[in-house]
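Lab meeting, item 3. Inverse folding demo.
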């Protein structure tokens, strides 16, 4: 009995951590995610009921003596026929439920927030769309949304197939080169939720994360206004030197910083880099030390990524990291 209790306690320790957290389909915070959670539990309980029924019938069959009479043959045919009909009914019911849940995930909504998400190896470009061109801006690896407002993602890929998955909020949707898919969802309460590429896309597939930050409408509007503004100007000589180094080195050939001569689009837009929680698509917390380490040797931190090693002196590295860390 004591051994059984230990086994149950150990199984709980292993299984419960997967039922909550900022990347769990069993901890839904949006209407679409709640529908998918219901689908998951429906499949689990139906499968459990079928398994228990099969084990019960097997136990009954093993406990009885075999017989070859005509009555026994008829009972066997009725039992097998009933099992076949029950299986067909269960499969049909689960198929209908799955179809309805899929329609919920892909349903359209009125007046959604339109965001274009483009997948690269291995980061996410996020563009907020608007009818007014002056209100369009681009960021990377982090999406801010207002709670209780539909969000419509326009999903595409620049190189290989990726897949957007924010399990707390919605289901998966692929990003395919040359094709645009859409995903509509909403968050029902403020919070930070982790999204992940769910389609193997290369050596750094596991390090292609994205944060979805759901906040109140006022907080979202404040964040959007700050993103629309130009990059912060240097406030001390070290930051000024860092901007000079950044715009004169190959960094400016890949990145954009609004308000400077850097206007390339090969890599992430860095205009408000310091306002993001992580760098390198969720790999490192966004601190000045992490920025310096990433700039100094990106291939050691994330092997295979497309950012080259840019030779910098120690003073140049300190200056550039100081400048980027101030881009709120």
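The presenter then showed the designed sequence:
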């Amino acid at each position: 009995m004591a051994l059984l209790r230990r086994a149950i306690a150990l199984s709980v320790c292993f299984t419960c951590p997967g039922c909550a957290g900022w990347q769990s389909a069993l901890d839904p915070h949006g209407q679409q995610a709640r529908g998918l959670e219901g689908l998951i539990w429906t499949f689990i309980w139906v499968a459990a009921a079928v398994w228990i029924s099969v084990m019960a019938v097997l136990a009954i069959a093993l406990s009885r003596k075999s017989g070859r009479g005509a009555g026994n043959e008829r009972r066997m045919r009725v039992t097998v026929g009933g099992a076949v009909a029950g299986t067909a009914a269960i499969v049909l019911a689960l198929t209908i439920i799955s179809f309805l849940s899929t329609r919920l995930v892909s349903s359209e909504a009125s007046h959604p927030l339109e965001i274009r998400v483009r997948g690269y190896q291995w980061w996410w470009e996020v563009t907020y769309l608007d009818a007014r061109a002056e209100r369009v801006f681009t960021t990377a690896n982090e999406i801010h949304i207002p709670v209780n407002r539909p969000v419509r993602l326009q999903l595409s890929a620049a190189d290989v197939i990726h897949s957007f998955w924010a399990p707390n909020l919605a289901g998966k949707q692929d990003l395919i080169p040359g094709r645009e898919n859409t995903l509509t969802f909403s968050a029902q309460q403020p919070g930070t939720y982790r999204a992940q590429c769910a389609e193997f896309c290369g050596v750094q597939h596991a390090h292609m994360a994205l944060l979805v930050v759901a906040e109140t409408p006022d907080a979202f509007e404040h964040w959007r206004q700050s993103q629309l503004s130009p990059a912060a100007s240097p406030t001390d000589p070290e930051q000024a030197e860092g901007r000079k180094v950044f715009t004169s080195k190959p960094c400016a050939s890949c990145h954009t910083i609004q308000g400077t001569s850097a206007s390339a689009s090969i890599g992430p837009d860095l205009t408000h880099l310091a306002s993001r929680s992580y760098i390198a698509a969720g790999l490192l917390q966004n601190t000045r030390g992490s920025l310096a380490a990433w700039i100094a040797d990106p291939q050691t931190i994330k092997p295979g990524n497309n950012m080259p090693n840019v030779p910098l002196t120690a003073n140049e590295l300190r200056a550039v990291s100081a400048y980027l860390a101030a881009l709120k």
